[in-house]
Amino acid sequence: MPAHTTTLYQMVGGEETVAQLVQAFYPRVYRNPELAPLFEGEMEEIMRKQRMFLTQFLGGPTLYSDEFGPPAMRMRHMPFPITPERATAWLACMKEAMDEIGLNGLACDLFYGRLSQVAQIMVNTASDGTRP
């Protein structure tokens, strides 16, 4: 990558910001009645994977792929019923976490825009619970 290229990872503040965001995000997810049923297991391990994924997603080091292979997030989330309401709740938790850590401006807008696209792609269950 040329020296003048700036990644979204660099724009948001790199490792420290990603760690703060994940730390602010997951307690919200575990408290959210729409999302909590999807998150079982130790929060620390889930947070570690999310830090790795977001680092890579934002253009930082390929931590997630190095340990787990290609992210293939839609496939990895297929066992979980993700409704449009859950996608919206997930995004709301993320936005609240961004606000809490003071992530704002262009970098935040670009990051949130990309997450919004991912959230829509992850929907695999209709609001009434039916799955294709």
UniProtKB/TrEMBL annotation:
Cite the InterPro entries for this sequence.
GlbO/GLB3-like, Globin-like_sf, Globin/Proto, Hemoglobin_trunc
The protein's UniProt keywords, in alphabetical order, are: Heme, Iron, Metal-binding, Transport
First and last residue of the signal peptide: none
**Could you confirm whether the keyword S-adenosyl-L-methionine appears in this record?**
no
Q: Can the keyword Iron be found in this entry's annotation?
A: yes
Q: Name one GO molecular function term.
A: heme binding
Q: Which family does it belong to?
A: Belongs to the truncated hemoglobin family. Group II subfamily.
Q: PANTHER family attached here?
A: TWO-ON-TWO HEMOGLOBIN-3
Q: What is this protein called?
A: Globin
